[in-house]
Design a protein that fits this description.
Elements (H helix, E strand, L loop, with lengths): L6 H9 L7 E7 L2 H8 L1 H19 L3 E5 L4 E6 L5 H16 L8 E7 L6 H22 L1
Antiparallel strand pairs: 1-3, 1-4, 2-3
């Protein structure tokens, strides 16, 4: 539906991480249940597609983009030095898209460097912890 790589593809890749896989970025849509409940699942699907496009535009040059759950996305990222640039670009593209799709949700973001001696599930747990801290800060800022 989104045109991103699937959770199965993500799991297969994480079984055989490549040396170029340097960072895991995770994203979770803010208040996505509200969108589905208020505007319907068709509107929710439209939001998922738009977010996926924003993700591809911001990150695909430096990583592989995946949809790993209902409103959960991740990127296996090759260029940690480009993280800030890509994150700012992603949020800028979302804000631009909100002008025509007002219900488009924001996304909470977390990242973690992939450590050589660490399992990918531990890396994901660190990225998730960073994402939940970002989600909490974004909620308090609203």
């Amino acid at each position: 539906m989104t045109g991103l790589l699937s959770q199965k593809s993500y799991l297969n890749r994480t079984l055989n991480l490549q040396p170029e896989d340097k960072m895991l970025i995770v994203l979770d849509l803010d208040n996505f249940k509200y969108i589905n409940d208020t505007y319907g699942h068709q509107a929710g699907d439209q939001c998922l597609k738009v977010i996926a496009e924003c993700l591809k535009k911001a990150y695909s040059r430096y990583g592989n983009c995946y949809r790993i759950g209902g409103d959960e996305f991740c990127v296996l990222f090759r260029k940690p030095e480009k993280e800030k640039y890509c994150r700012e670009k992603f949020y800028w593209i979302i804000e631009k898209q909100k002008k025509s799709l007002h219900m488009l949700p924001g996304a909470s973001y977390g990242s973690a460097l992939i450590e050589e001696q660490e399992s990918i599930s531990d890396t994901k747990a660190r990225a998730d912890a960073n994402m939940y801290a970002n989600k909490k800060a974004r909620k308090q800022a609203r």
